[in-house]
Every structure is written in structure tokens, then in C-alpha cells.
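Report of the visiting student (M.T.), summer placement. My assignment was to run the structure pipeline on a short list of targets and document each run. The first record concerns Peptide/nickel transport system ATP-binding protein.
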Amino acid sequence: MKPILEAQNVTKHFPTGGGLFQKKGLVKAVDGVSLSITPGETFAIVGESGCGKSTLARLLMRLIDATTGDVVFDGKQVTTARGKALSDLRRDVQFIFQDPFSSLNPRMSVGRLVGEPLEVHAPDLSKSERQAKVSALLAQVGLRPEHADRYPHEFSGGQRQRIGIARALASGPRLIIGDEPVSALDVSVQAQVVNLLGDLGRDLGLTLILIAHDLAVIRHMSDRVAVMYLGKIVEQGTTDDLFERPRHPYTRALLDAIPDPDDRGSASRARIEGEMPSPLNPPPGCAFHTRCPHATDLCRTKVPMPQTTPDGHMTACHHWQDLGLTPRQTTASSRSPATQARLELYRKATEGAKIIPVASKTPDREELT
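After the run finished, the C-alpha cells were exported:
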């Protein structure tokens, strides 16, 4: 299947210093990332805070410009898009921010915030049709039509996140990028929003790119996962394969950091010692060698090249074939009752509002009633 989004050797370097007493430098936030995402899939990006995953997400939809590399959406260049091409990209690719309040104009009502993309991308809609579409969007994310007259400061953090999701859906996008889209929500609301995003992906054929720290959300929702460390993709594969048979020591340590009440303090669980190096001065060779218990002289001097197995699993590690990492046990019985109950909430199908392509220029009259 032809990819809907491709990134080839994308980098983003931020200059620092240069003052009277400051030395100039470059923060290598994203350092040579390549991705290929197929239509309709849910692709997750995980890693520690500061690894560059949020910066990568912004590069993919051109919220910031890449230093080098190419991003292609549906066969069209993103990195050089101008004018109408850039406007079409804004319609087809939408972003859900981690902090919704920072992306919502406090002087605009919720109705205007959610309806603004319709004014830009569906100008043929009448005022009454646009209001009906806004009401439908709010219902889709669990808000009431009368909320359209209120302002962002009158809502809780979780409700503001729902407003941000409704605004992202307004243009009828084909791809949505979510930067920690459920991190600001209560656990019960998380389940609703996770189910909502899953339903949208299924019913509208959306492609989703999710950045999340909650590995339970990723395990439930995603089809493939990419693991980032210090601006680079160190492992990538299908969700089940990566969770059950991680090849990279960093991935194994991330997964083993998930609390397990039946395995407290086990010596077999991988641990990450120390802190992530500064992207201003990354170590030579493999960036993870300063924290890796398996590091050798080769790791300290030579950058590992990505190696891909016949089943499509990619690993950037010199010794992944020699480490002999045993498969992880992820059966339901090894999870705590609270975690298991939470996963059941995620799995439960929603039967809420009808999912509709909101930004259609020729709206179905039945949708407006």
C-alpha cells in the first residue's frame, strides 16, 4: 500500500548561545529520522521526555520547518509547500496539542473556535449549517451544544482537550497527530477519548499518529510503534512484536519500567541508569551507550545503522542479535486488577454520537437535523 506520509532523514537543529559570553552550539532535537506511515493505521511514537518526539510531530505537519530532510504527504512535498498547497495540508493534517489551553484563543467562544476551520475550509456552508456542524462536533467529543457559548477558561483541562479534538476534526482531516492527547484527562475520560479516536479512525478512515507516555494506551490503540532516543529512532515494529520481543536494550528497559505487582524488584527486569545526555552535546557512537549495560568499544565509537528483519522490524543496535533478550510475559494475569479494568474500558466499544465527516462542502441534510 502506498504510504500516506513519509519522512526521509529529517533533522531539526536549534542554534543556541552566541551572546557576549556564550559559545554557539546546536541542539539536535531530531537527528536523521525516517518514517513511512500507511493510510488508516495508528502509529505511535514513544520515548523519554526530551527525546524529540514532540518536535518530530511538529515537523511532520510543518508547524516548524525542518533543518534538512523531506516530508511527503499523499505524494506532495510538505517541507516546501506554499500558498494553496500549504492550506490544503492544514485541512488534511490536524494537530491535537498536549496543552489545549495554549492553542485556544481565550477571547473566542468555543463555538467560534470550533467553527473557525469551517469558515476557512468549508466557506460554502451557511451560518445555520455551520452552527449545526459545530453542535455535531461538540456532541462527538462528549460536550453539549450550549457549551458553544462559553469560553475556554470556563472548562476543566479535560474539557478543553475535548474542545481541541473537536477543532481538529472540524476541517475533515485525513491524518491527525496527537501530542499526548489524553495525558490531561482523568482515567475514565481517557477511556472515552481513546475510544472516540479509535472510532474516528475506523469510521472516517483516519490515519493517527500518537505521542504518549501511557504504554497501555499505545498497546491498545496502535498498529506500529517507533521508539525514540536523543533525536533518533532506535527501534520500530508492530505493536505486539515490539511489546513482546523488544530487540533494543532501551526499549526493553522502557517496557520493564511498567509497574508489575507480581514481579517487585526482580533482578531480571532491565533498568536505565543515569540521565539522557544533552542534545547540545550528544555522545559519539551509539547515543545510548552511556546508559547501556551491554555497551562495548564499538558502541562508543560507531553509530549503529538501522537493521531491518524480513518481517519489517527495525533496530539500531550493534549487538541486538547477540543480546538474547528473552520474550516478555504480558499475559492478563500479570497485570494488576486496576490496570486490567482500565484496559477493559479501552476495549469496550462506544455507542455514542454518529461519526460524520464534518467539513463536507455539500452537507447531508439529515446530519443537520
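The chain has two domains: 5-16+26-222, 227-259+271-315. Confidence is low (pLDDT under 50) at residues 330-336, 349-369. I thank the supervising group for their guidance throughout the placement.
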